[in-house]
Amino acid sequence: MTMHSRTVFFISDGTGITAETFGNAVLAQFEMKPRHVRLPFTDTVDKAHQAVRQINHTAEIEGVRPIVFTTLANMDVLEVIETGCKGMLLDMFGTFVRPLEIELAVKSNHRIGRFSDVSKSKEYNDRIAAIDFSLQHDDGQSNRDLEGADVILVGVSRSGKTPTSLYLAMQHGLKAANYPLIPEDFDRRQLPPALIPHRKKIFGLTIQPERLSEIRNERRPNSRYASIENCRHEVAEAEAMMRRAGIRWLSTTTKSIEEIATTILQELRPERLVY
Known about the structure:
The protein has about 280 residues and is of the alpha/beta class. The protein is built from 10 helices and 8 strands.
């Protein structure tokens, strides 16, 4: 089967993020790169019929059944999909929620993807505040209110600090600042002065020099900044500095953002793994 000969649909009465996250976690177990189609806000019977037409048209063109992940609370909408679509249907409610309703002897809220009341919650507001904080404290832009940070990431330029900071803010509601380690810091042989009082919150990111050189060459080709010699020097100096300062650190070279963020949580804020 060719790489894109299969289409996967994610159908939800909300944003579709839950269906997509769940579906992608399952699909990641297989060596395939399907085409993804998200159909959010499918919350009426009319929209369900439109979705069925799109799925069935895809089935005709491709000659194989599309895979269809659903998170649909409205039973009338789900029934249209179940009875009409010529795809392989994987219904999250049917698979997980209904058996839990029986086990817990209570009816579920049937509110997957409904964010109207979530947006009024403390957790939601905290997460927005964390994102705002992380943007203001990206790449050492501001020293203000570092005592308010949950974590401060340090590392050489292009070692993965910004995406990790934003993921920690968006996914876990952590106020994450990040600071680049630069040649002036290496000359002084110590952390940037603004960070020293907050050593317990600091976590270091490093990266293989070869990979760093590749990334930097995309940004500034054939520059000294991107040269393998300079990358080796900066990485060695940064790692030596982290060791001297007693900072925990890890290499981002072969790790996903999710793995990096979870490791940081385990090390610095283990209580955030229990909620």
